[in-house]
Design brief:
This protein has about 450 residues and is an alpha/beta fold. It is about 45% helix and about 15% strand.
C-alpha cells in the first residue's frame, strides 16, 4: 500500500495524497471521484500504478470534497482554476521542480491549465480519455440525464456510471465499483463534479502549452467520445495521438499493457532497466510465477511476461509447486484436498446454485428496465445476453417437471474442464513468452490426473 499523507491548500483545506515508487515524478491531477485508500484495493488499478512506480515517483490525490480529503466544499468553489491551485499546492509541498502530468478524463483540463501557466515546471503531458471542451465531449442530453440521475438517486446513478466506465466488467465488479463511488463522495458532490467536468473548456489555453504531449483514447470509450480525444491532440502544439482498442474509460482497465507500452516509449523509460524491482530479492536467472492482484508475472530464462489471471494459471502454479506429483483434475477444479473422484451422480446445478441463478435473473430484469428507460442500447444488449445464457443453463440443468438432471461422471467433467483451461493458459503463455510456452507444453501432462514433469529439475518461486 503506498504511503498516504496530507498537505494544506492555500484556502486552508487538507488534501490527501498517495506516494509510490522513486524516480522522475508523475503527478495525476484528480479525476472525477477517487479514494486514495480504496482505489488501491482494485487489482487492475494496483497493477497499472505499480508498473509506473517501478520507474517513477507516482503521485495521486483526492480532490477536495471526495475520498480522504476534506469533504466540505462550496459548489461555487468547484472550478478548474481552483483545481489547478490545489494541484499546484501539492507539487510545491513535495518540492517537485519538474514533473510529468498525467491527466485522466476531466483531469486533463487541470493538467493543461497548469502546463500553460507553469511551463517551466512541466516536463511532459500525458492525456488519456480527455477532451478540449467538456460541453462537446458527450451529447448535451446525456450530460443532463446523468447529472440529474446522480442527484436524484446516487445508488442508481453510481451503477449507471460504473457500467459506462467499464462496460465489459461482470455484474459483481460493477457493483463493487458503484459502491466505491458512493463511499468516495456524496451524490450531490458527485453531481457537482460531473457538471464541473462538462463545463471545463481549455480551448483558449492549448496553444500556450509548450511541453511534449501524448494523447491516448480508446475507440469505443462510452464516457468521452473518441473524436474528443482526436480534437484535443490536433490542437496541442506538440502532441502525438495514439488510438487504442477497447471500451474502458479508465487507463488501468482493459488492455492497460498496451497503454503502458506507449507511455514508457513516450517518456523514454526502458521497462527492463529496473525489472529487478518486481522481485527485489530474486536472482537474474530465477524462474517465477507469482500472482499480484489480477496479474501473474512469469519469469523464465531471463525474460518476463505479464498475464491476466485465469483459473488455468492458478492450476499451473499448483502443479509447479508439486513437481512430479500427479494431482487429480477434480482437486484442481475444486481447490480441495486430493481425493478419488466418486462414482455416482451429482446434480448439474444444486438447489443453491439454481436459487442464485434465479435471483440473478430477477436482478437483470430490474437492470434491464432501468437501461431501457435511458435507452442504453449497449447495456441492454449485454444484460439480455447474460439473461439468455443463465436461462439456457437452467433449461439444460432441469428436466421435465423441473427435476434436476444428473451428471453421470463428475471426474470426467473435471478432466475436460481442467485440461482445457490449462492448455488455453499454456497457449497464452506461448504467445507472450515463447520459451516458457514451449517448456510447459513439453513438461505439463493433463487428463484425469495432471502433472508437471520437466526433463530436468527446474526451481520455481511461487
Amino acid at each position: 500500500m503506498p504511503s498516504i499523507r496530507f498537505c494544506s491548500t492555500e484556502d486552508g483545506k487538507r488534501l490527501a495524497y498517495a506516494l509510490d515508487g522513486d524516480g522522475p515524478a508523475i503527478v495525476f491531477p484528480a479525476w472525477w471521484i477517487s479514494h486514495v485508500e480504496k482505489d488501491w484495493e482494485h487489482g487492475p488499478f494496483q497493477e497499472f500504478f505499480g508498473a509506473l512506480a517501478r520507474h517513477h515517483l507516482v503521485v495521486r490525490y483526492d480532490r477536495i470534497g471526495v475520498g480522504l480529503s476534506d469533504r466540505g466544499r462550496d459548489p461555487k468553489d468547484m472550478t478548474v482554476d481552483r483545481e489547478t491551485e490545489h494541484m499546484g499546492a501539492l507539487i510545491d509541498h513535495l518540492g517537485l521542480d519538474k514533473c510529468t502530468l498525467f491527466g485522466v478524463s476531466c483531469g486533463g483540463a487541470t493538467a493543461i491549465t497548469y502546463a500553460e501557466r507553469k511551463p517551466s515546471r512541466v516536463r511532459n503531458l500525458i492525456l488519456h480519455g480527455s477532451y478540449l471542451r467538456g460541453c462537446s465531449s458527450v451529447e448535451p442530453e446525456v450530460q443532463e440525464a446523468l447529472v440529474g440521475l446522480v442527484r436524484a438517486s446516487w445508488g442508481v446513478g453510481s451503477k449507471t456510471l460504473a457500467s459506462l466506465f467499464t462496460p465489459d466488467h461482470s455484474p459483481q465488479e460493477l457493483r463493487r465499483i458503484a459502491a466505491m463511488q458512493r463511499e468516495s463522495a456524496t451524490g450531490e458532490t458527485a453531481a457537482q463534479l460531473l457538471m464541473l467536468g462538462y463545463s471545463a473548456d481549455v480551448a483558449a489555453l492549448v496553444s500556450g502549452v509548450a511541453a511534449p504531449c501524448l494523447v491516448t483514447h480508446r475507440h469505443r470509450d462510452r464516457v468521452i467520445r473518441f473524436d474528443a480525444g482526436r480534437e484535443l491532440a490536433a490542437n496541442l502544439p506538440d502532441a502525438s495521438f495514439v488510438p487504442l482498442d477497447g471500451t474502458a474509460h479508465a487507463p488501468w482497465e482493459g488492455d492497460s499493457a498496451a497503454l503502458l507500452e506507449q507511455i514508457f516509449a513516450f517518456l523514454g523509460t526502458d521497462p527492463s532497466t529496473t525489472e529487478a524491482d518486481v522481485f527485489p530479492a530474486r536472482n537474474s536467472n530465477e524462474n517465477a510465477l507469482v500472482r499480484r492482484g489480477e496479474v501473474w508475472t512469469l519469469s523464465f530464462e531471463d525474460a518476463q511476461a505479464l498475464l491476466k489471471h485465469s483459473k488455468g494459471l492458478a492450476d499451473l502454479a499448483t502443479l509447479l509447486a508439486n513437481p512430479g506429483e500427479e494431482i487429480a483434475a477434480a482437486t484442481l477444479m475444486h481447490q480441495a484436498e486430493s481425493a478419488a473422484a466418486p462414482v455416482g451422480s451429482d446434480d448439474v446445478l444444486d438447489d443453491r446454485a439454481r436459487s442464485e441463478f434465479r435471483t440473478r435473473v430477477q436482478a437483470i430484469d430490474e437492470d434491464l428496465e432501468e437501461a431501457r428507460s435511458f435507452n442504453d442500447l449497449g447495456r441492454i444488449e449485454r444484460l439480455e445476453q447474460e439473461r439468455d445464457a443463465i436461462l439456457s443453463e437452467l433449461r439444460v440443468a432441469t428436466g421435465l417437471g423441473g427435476r434436476s438432471r444428473k451428471l453421470k461422471d463428475p471426474a470426467e467433467r473435471a478432466r475436460k474442464a481442467v485440461s482445457a483451461r490449462i492448455r488455453e493458459s499454456i497457449q497464452r503463455i506461448a504467445e507472450a513468452h515463447p520459451a516458457a510456452g514451449e517448456h510447459f507444453a513439453a513438461a505439463v501432462r493433463t487428463g484425469a490426473f495432471c502433472c508437471y514433469e520437466p526433463k530436468s529439475s527446474v526451481n520455481w518461486r511461487l
